[in-house]
Predict the structure.
Amino acid sequence: MSLKPSPTHANVPIDPTVLEWTHRLTQLGPRFFTHLQPTPVAAPRWAARNQDLRDALGWPTEVFDDVHLQALAGNALMVGSQPLATVYSGHQFGQWAGQLGDGRAIWLGEAASLQGPQEIQLKGAGRTPYSRGGDGRAVLRSSIREYLCSEAMHGLGIPTTRALSLVASPEPVRRETLETAAVVARVAPSFLRFGHFEHFAAQGDADSLRLLADHALTHHLPECRERAALWQGNVYAALLDVVQERTGQLLAQWQAVGFCHGVMNTDNMSLLGLTIDYGPFQFMDGFDPGHICNHSDHEGRYAYGRQPQVAYWNLYALAQALAPLIDDQDMTLQVLEGYKTGFPRALGDAMRAKLGWVGALAIESEREADWSLVEDLMQLMAAEKVDYTLFWRQLSHAVVQQSHGPNLSDTGWCAVTDLVLDRPRLLAWLQRFTNRSDPSHFAAMGQQMLKSNPKFVLRNHLAEVAIRKAQTGDFSEIETLYTLLKSPFEDHPGFEAYANLPPDWASQLEISCSS
Ligand code: AMP
Ligand code: MG
């Protein structure tokens, strides 16, 4: 394919000392990627700049100056950047989809930071050899969602790719309707996906597969070398083991916070166990295990309650890709078994934290009894379709108020019991819950609950308001949401409306794959 050359691409001399580039990925060689330039967008404008992330990475203020606006829009190149798009394959909705690849995310390179080397990608920066008929662009609507949700996840303590900046352009982009373009600069230690490994396995290219696995082991998951001791020195078995463990922990956190990813294809699964590729995701409003957030997912393959099983299915696909390297089928299957115990354990821990039971209060011998308490609560919540975030937050506040010892006739519980129709059922559950702990522990439990149950999540309707404003050129709501979501466990007085039930119009919102 041909990319329009642009005069702005004559390596605009942006101070080479601003970022210190390394290029460990490029050492893999041309079978893994294609070097290419981003395609410029018209009239780029900052829609959001993440100063907190820039500070945390130790990157200089110049990164957000006018010159770098051009660079983070894909209209100019920072000196030292060697842009490329990587190739991967994958399973989409349970079917082998063959070759995919970075169809619109252009990798600028890897820059040194206070948190170690970080890769930077521009999502929506134009066509690549892997665009498969797509336009290489991302619309402002989905880019705002990606920007805010990356940072919301980080605020919740959930592993994720990060969002450094959001650049808007008036350039038209056709989706179901005519929209406008945007470019998100996203940052992660690595953007490697399960699909990168599936690609070379499907090609029968064992040499490339090994190179890629060694790259991941050396640069991104060095703990695998130690883990290999558990697997007769087999570092590739250890690699799969570390990935299944991280994936299980990630899924536990998604489930605990009520996050639905929406498109858990194997090409959207991060090798590092990060949340990646924000599309039709949703933080559930009313609790429903069968909730489907992606309106293109007619079968409900990626429904909230199915996510943990889908992650296992995806790990199985990764295991098949790594099988030639592990070279021991029994061992490969045994590694995968780890997910079946690791995920429920991680979920149990996460749910117990939501009930205030961490540290000395997370009594090992109570694990099973605690889980049955959690399950009964989830069944009650599902029957009532109670608002997931609000319920947990109100429960946390109610427990804080019981710091002199729990008393179920206390009006402090009303904010919780008012959320359901079947009060006797909830009161019976609350009785069991309060019986579980020593009254002297309630203060500590309540404080823990406030740290485990967020007040603010990126509900669809909140994002929608920011999108509609931004589409008129007003980006202020992005900033407001960012401020709340980066510290979602804090109270943020004056912003109660952002923690309320969704308005009626929100139920009409349909979020599809189109982005
Ligand atoms: P997704 O469902 O967003 O994970 O995308 C699946 C594949 O389609 C990946 O290879 C993407 O890079 C590619 N893709 C999605 N949207 C576009 C687009 N507008 N232009 C080019 N490629 C795209
Ligand atoms: Mg994707």
User: Anything to note?
Assistant: The chain is about 40% helix and 15% strand. Residues 100-104, 130-131, 134-137, 263, 267-268, 277, 279, 513 surround adenosine monophosphate (ligand 1) (CB under 6 Å).
